[in-house]
Amino acid sequence: MLPRPSLSLLPRFCSFLPFATMSSKTGTFHLQQPLNYRAGARIQPVDGSHNEEVYEPATGRVMGKFLFSGEKEVDLAVQSAKAAFKIWSQKSGMERSRVLLEAARIIRERREEIATMETINNGKSIFEARVDVDISWQCLEYYAGLAGAIAGQHIQLPGGSFAYTRREALGVCVGIGAWNYPFQIACWKSAPALACGNAMIYKSSPLTPISVVMLAEIFTQAGVPNGLFNVVQGGAATGQFLCQHRDVAKVSFTGSVPTGIKIMEMSAKGIKPVTLELGGKSPLIIFSDSVLENAVNGALMANFLTQGEVCSNGTRVFVQREILEAFTEEVVKRTQKIKIGDPLLEDTRMGALISRPHLERVLGFITQAKEQGAKVLCGGEPYVPDDPKLKNGYYMRPCVLGDCRDDMTCVKEEIFGPVMSILPFDTEEEVLERANNTTFGLAGGVFTRDIQRAHRVVAALQAGMCFINNYNISPVELPFGGYKMSGFGRENGQAAMEYYSQLKTICVEMGDVESVF
Ligand SMILES: NC(=O)c1ccc[n+]([C@@H]2O[C@H](COP(=O)([O-])OP(=O)(O)OC[C@H]3O[C@@H](n4cnc5c(N)ncnc54)[C@H](O)[C@@H]3O)[C@@H](O)[C@H]2O)c1
Ligand SMILES: C[N+](C)(C)CCCC=O
Q: Is 277 tagged catalytic?
């Protein structure tokens, strides 16, 4: 069943344009063009460590190879971005706004092509990839709207003197992204960065290097100066060259906690500000007075989007004991009905996980959960679709675990796969204590009909993004980010503008200087 149309995942704009030039059937795409982008064009990097293969998760097929960028290529990208920054940062907010609006328009126009590419490279269903693309152009439109509103303050001082503040761009910003929302994460970072007058160099996860280059082309077509948005490709070493570069002013990172720690350490050496969007193990609390159908829908949304590979997922589902049986029965029934298979088919709702090692890691968590006493209520095993071309894809059946305890690994660690753990509780006080007993703090949710309890519970949750009676919806107007080890800084909403700009204060003397000497 689809979410309700009010605050739902359904696109706010739909344009079903014909496919562009690329092949759109699973198992047919071949990488032909370079994946680095510098000074307004796709290029081969001037140096690099090695060639990396790009896989299609739906089939397990290698689609092509690309070179991991070396230090020289990173430096050229930074120098190109520095030159473009000089032009872009001098434009008015309204001029920047017009370019971002044009980029949003082109994304809408190329919606089907981008969504198809995202599905081919990530493995998520085309249904979800279209939603990701819609959230992406909405993000550009939102920050286009804010670009013209960037303003300072005027402060009166004695004797007619005064001061004013200017909100200025930072310079060359680096964006480093994860593989679960490749195009969307690049837009969440670049839209506020460019709106504030910065340049950006972006590095995707090496598992999903393709769609961000389409974004780079779109920015150029929309009218950003050549070099303003460059793409370098690679893994940890390329990321390190970026973070350590002396001309980089800021790093915005989305990824795991261990990598986030390294990013922060490197940035600390250059006193560079960082935004860290890290992992989570979020609680979803379902009280017995909830509308059961909504609570079940919420739990599915909280666990199974993008094959469960979602940072904000509410994977610890706390259910009040009175409705445990009814809730569990319904959630299992609905999970078993999820259509798994070729992600480019219209009716598929769960595609392939990102890679073979990741699939094995997720299945390993389920084996361990069983060893520790959890009961597999459904799924949890590899899935082989009937279509022969999909037989080497990375599919599994979504899993619901019962008989879970707070001390089990499946309840404590981020699995990043389609695995829901159900945990019974009795009282509000008890569940809050247990929900907050984690080093993570990205998201949390509550289902109840008691309005006072709903607000009391979210106020007590130690998490940056909380939902009442829904889960995992992401209007771009809302700030998104974590507490505790899930990171700091915010993406989306007005808040993100703070993280891509700096404040200058100018103090103006209107009288004579009174010296104390
Ligand atoms: N909070 C959020 O908004 C959010 C969103 C998506 C994913 N995530 C998190 O991301 C993780 C999954 O993504 P992943 O496996 O790509 O994470 P990861 O930390 O392995 O990699 C993330 C990015 O960092 C790069 N990288 C790796 N080592 C680096 C280093 N030493 N220096 C610089 N860059 C380096 C990678 O190449 C990749 O581009 C999960 O923990 C998930 O929760 C968080
Ligand atoms: C768009 N979602 C579903 C809120 C996911 C945000 C990015 C986290 O992985």
A: yes
Residues of the chain scoring pLDDT < 50 = 1-21
User: Which ligand 1 atom is at minimum distance from the Cα of 258?
Assistant: 19
Give the separation between CA 348 and CA 325, rounded to whole angstroms.
29
Ligand nearest to the CA of 134: 2
Sheet with strand 154-156: strands edge to edge? 154-156, 162-169, 501-508
ipTM score of the complex? Answer: 0.96
pLDDT of amino acid 24? 76
pLDDT of residue 120: 98
User: 88 CB less than 6 Å from ligand 2?
Assistant: no
How many angstroms is it from 277 CA to the middle of ligand 1? 9
- At residue 23, the pLDDT reads 58
Whole-number Å distance, alpha carbon 472 to ligand 2 midpoint, is 7
CA 416 to centroid of ligand 1, rounded, Å:
12
Ligand 1 within 6 A of 417 CB?
A: no
**308-338 residue pLDDT tens:** 999 999 999 999 999 999 999 999 999 999 9
311 CB near ligand 2 (under 6 Å): yes
Q: Which ligand neighbours the alpha carbon of 238 most closely? A: 1
Q: Please name the residues in contact with 400: beta carbons below 8 A apart, sequence gap of 6 or more.
A: 328, 331, 332, 335, 376, 377, 378, 379, 420, 422
Question: What is the structure's pLDDT at 393?
Answer: 98
Query: What's residue 22's pLDDT?
Result: 54
Contact assessment for residue 396 and residue 279, using Cβ atoms and an 8 Å cutoff? no
Strand order in the sheet with 274-277: 41-43, 36-38, 229-231, 199-203, 172-176, 248-254, 274-277, 487-488
Under DSSP, is residue 220 helix (H, G, I), strand (E, B) or coil? helix
